[in-house]
## 1
Amino acid sequence: MLLPVLISNITKLNTTAADSSHNAMYKTPFHASDLSKSAFLVTGGAGFIGSNIVEYLVRFGAGKIRILDNLSTGFKANIEPFLSLTNVEFMQGDICNADTCNAACEGIDFISHQAALGSVPRSVANPLATHQVNVDGFLNMLIAARDAGVKRFVYASSSSVYGDSPIMPKKEAQIGNPLSPYAVSKLSDELYAGVFSLNYGMKIIGLRYFNVFGPRQNPAGAYAAAIPLFMDAMTSDKTTVIYGDGEQTRDFTFVENAVQANIRSVFAPEKSCGLVYNVATGMSVSVNDLYANLKTLLQSNLAPEYRPERKGEVKNSLADISLANDKLQYQPTVHLAEGLSETVKWFQEYKSSIKV
């Protein structure tokens, strides 16, 4: 009975998050254009980052918002409060189906492509599934967007493409060898995007996300990210597991910054297209320090359990965000302390709403 309980709890979590709309978020627009005259497609729009992009578009009056999601890792509850709106349409479908992609792109001006099968450990366990969604599905979307005459295609890449490069901070032009099937899939997306820009004149922008966290990030499942896992363990009196010695560093990026990068990319000058940009804060923290910050916020005294590091994981990660700042006018508005505080607040609302 564990799985139904987890699903029920996650549904409550996401409904709470969507209903509250977190008044601290998205107060200031990241665009200057009139959104009411444009049609947007958000793939993976019921997922963590995708649903936050949908919320932004709803809040600022986008003319049409189509959400495509197969609900394999996303939750309809993330977008439930928006589905009654006349400008919002939900399509349950899979990007691995070319016909579905073609239908989703019909009448669309701008695409924010967030649909993917995430997680480095998941990709090591099942590389074929990762390839099918992240590469074959991505190619389906590119072809559909090309054939539909979409004006701008913005897609999610990953900091994992830097692989074994020792260079710090990470600069877009200096990558190493991928360390996981997930990294290979995201690097493949970047290569396909470049080829489609070159051969078909498509206006495409890629965004290399660095450890995005925030409201609506799923804390359940074998492949949950560190921050929701830590919060869940601390608030459930369970032992937190840290892989490695905890001294590995990450450029943790609050989800509002990722939303900003997507919106700015949609409306960036054409000369900014054809490139991939780091989306991060330009500051890093060790996993041990992150854990200590969460302990303070959640008033926890639990000590973590350290286990051997996992295959495919990058040791250290810190982004140079100067290119995104120059070409997209991207500037992170929420840094780690504020982002953690907002995320903890959301998670505590979720915990208080659960009665198992």
## 2
Amino acid sequence: MRHHPTATRVRALPLLAAVLCLGVPATMHAQFLDGFDAPTIDGWFTLAGDGGATIAFEPHPDTGFARMRIDSRQDAHGVWWTIIKRDVSAHLDLAKLRDPEYELRVEARVRASHAPRRVNFMINTQRTTDFHEHLREYDIADTDGWHTISMTTRNLDAGPGDQVFVQLGVTDWGSGQCHLDIDTYRADVVRRGTADVGEPLVYHPAPVAPAGFAQHLPAAHDSVVRLDYPKVNFNGWRTDLGSGPVPVLTVTANQWVVMRWDFSAWRGRTVDGAGVLELTTASLALGGDYVGAFGEDLGIEFGKIRVYEILGGDPAWDQTSVTYASLLRGEAAETVFNGQMVIDYDLTPEPGGRTLLTLPRPVMQRLVDGRTRGLVIRPLGAIAATVFASEDTQRRGPVLHFSLKP
């Protein structure tokens, strides 16, 4: 989940002025359904942006699905988005959509090549200015089978004469090759309040204040690991803030922060909603004319910290001995660390300032269950971001805030 004006990196994309050829016949009541059973894919177009990813949308008529095939091997920064998109106006009862009792609902049946990963729906028109209003993300937890996800709009401003666009996005899944299979995609004008399937996650949610949670759990272990010194333990990393050494954690290009918590008291419990990771700034150094180098759309993404899940490696690493190599435990980095970040965000620059990072409910559930073994913080851009460690005597170290269902 990215904390910037993109849709999990789907940004305010340019809309096509011309109505595209719509090759799928309308269903009853002018509803739209594409089962991707034909030897060609009609009406859909693809877009990719920011980083070096490319996308192809391929039919697989023999098995009745289409595939978003993405190649991000040339991406240098892990910042990219890809989408499939089409105009479904001709298939919808736009007059009914103007009625406040009706909304637009999209639904897709998908299967992912990598997991856990998030995908996203977006709906917009030629007049849309807020491209996050009708945007939701969905956590796909496995690669074993098909998952049905849906999203229903709230107060969609669309009616006769409008172009209504629907899309499905894959964003920042990491560097390499991946794909998302789509078995069906439908769009229906439905009564307000129609239930959705899957778990729609609000993009760019405002973080809940720590006081709003029942549990406040400091990190059990936190340290830094260095890619250029993979066998060196850096526990005890510190800085002097004027009154002597203070234990801190610093994120740079070659140095990452790793954190894990002891959830043994809550194994088997169900997480209630999103959680929040709280960090307290010790210092922050950053700069660079990224916009001048990469253009505005990509340039504005830099100068942030990025939070990723630790999915593999040593499940019980200890801060007193952990190194980059020992954390990996012989596994490939791309399997130990989720290729898609949970969130990236600007660290609060003022010393002592708090940064609250929202962790979606599925991520929190994996942490509590032990399927996610901790979190790693990496940089996006040339920054030196330092936060207080768990050993800080003023208790300014990393804390997870969350709640559980009874």
## 3
Amino acid sequence: MDYLLQLAASPTAWVALATLIVMEIVLGIDNLIFISILTNKLPVQHRAKARRIGISMALILRLGLLSTIAFIVQLTAPVIEIFGQAFSWKDMILIAGGLFLVWKATTEIHHSMDPEPEQVASSTPSVSLGFAAAIGQILMLDLVFSIDSIITAVGMTEHLPIMIIAVVVSVIVMLVAAEPLAKFINDNPTVVMLALGFLIMIGMTLIAEGFGAHVPKGYVYAAMAFSAVIECLNMARRSRHKRLAAKH
């Protein structure tokens, strides 16, 4: 209790908490985009449930990993060397997660550009993903993003309560933002393509980091933000043209 009171009275701890919360929310954007795109392929009545399960499991995974910090830290130690390049468990997990993201986003882009004949003939897109398969893929990426998130948290502060609060707050933000983000992506096909492009970029970033090439997250998110602003301007332009066409 004395430790918690001292922590609460420390300005440094509050700065660390605020910084870590922002960092965890930013890292959670990648996870949330993937969950939104994947759950939008489910029947309407199952989408919200799948999003809640996926994000809840992300919280459980993060808190579970926080309880094994000593083990998580060891994941950064090299365990294998190939052609002079050392790889840790973290590196291999990031590479596997990045490859999965690139494969999944590329597959979704292919389906969007060249849909199956039955999808073209139908007035509504057919559901090509089962509930269990969606949850399984979400959990796989939850694990990758959770490990990255926890290792980032460990590198920013040594206080476990700060890490726990930051993780819980970031997941609550994900829960609140999940529904409107998924609806926005579903209602705007061009945004879906942009989001899939983001996932490819994130996947390549994970692969690069797995091979030891550090990619500053600021550059990645700045590119994402710039692309999102351009797409918002395009959407506003299309909306304005529709209003003008309706008047005439």
## 4
Amino acid sequence: MSYPIDVIDKFGCDALRFTLATMSTPGRDIKLATSRIEGNRNFVTKLWNATRFCEMNGCAPSDQFNPVQVNQTVNQWIIGETKQTADKIAALLDDYRFDLASSAAYEFVWNTFCDWYLEFTKPIIAGEDQAAKTETQATTAWVLGQILHLLHPFMPFITEEIWAEFTGNTNMLITAPWPVIKANAKAAQDEMNWLVRAISSIRTVRAELNVPAGAQIPLQVKGASDATKEKLAHHNAIIVRLARLSGITHTEIVGKGSAQTILDEATLILPLAEIIDINQESARLKKESEKLAAEIQKIEAKLGNKDFVDRAPPEIIEEQRTRKADFEAMIAKLESAQKSLAG
């Protein structure tokens, strides 16, 4: 590892600070890897890109914005998620759990805000409903402002720079009070988190079975309740777009060569017989499972060797146990994918 100043010159001070925060688990010796710092530099870039997206789409801060008065479900959802995250990070910082606090911030910014909320709201911002568009632009700007507050303890330099540029506020962020957010958005959070799970379930099946990214597949739904049918109909367009589907229909029959996954009481079915070679894909999944099982056997042999356990440093033992657990989780996913191929 280079000197800290060399790391800062290469990756930036905020990326180094954030990495140290995420790795500061009590009782753990930090084994700093350049790849971890580089990954968090990408996180800084993600924050920059989100800011640029907001600026390019007319999402400007407004003193008139009141988070408890929004009407769009997707905006109620992100406000509820922002409050939940802010409260969680505040409690963790009070307990000096900088690792968990920074990880919670990362998860919210990268996944909830950038990967989901911004994708969900693109059609609204590009749409003809001016009231919904104006509300969404204001909500997006407000959430970005809260994000800068939440990240400031870990990334003071980038957040101050974006704060000054994006808000035009001459008061420094470091002097601003911690966000205290009022929101009552449980219904919206339940609905939108269901939507996230639905799209994620379909994407997972596609990834596990090597479905070509450009292939648009029909989704068939079996055993859906009336409530699920209503949600599927209401969010049809966004599910089709983000899960790369050709459409959604309901059925009581599972055709041969179909992949299946469960979403609450409903079964999501993807007919893949004409998209991939089912036998070849099943054989690939089996081969991958066997390779991982062989690796697990090697690790178990090491951990079962008393000389190795007595002489190896504790971190090496822990590393082997972690690898074993990771391989077991991967095998479970591969076996689930195999089972999902019906017929």
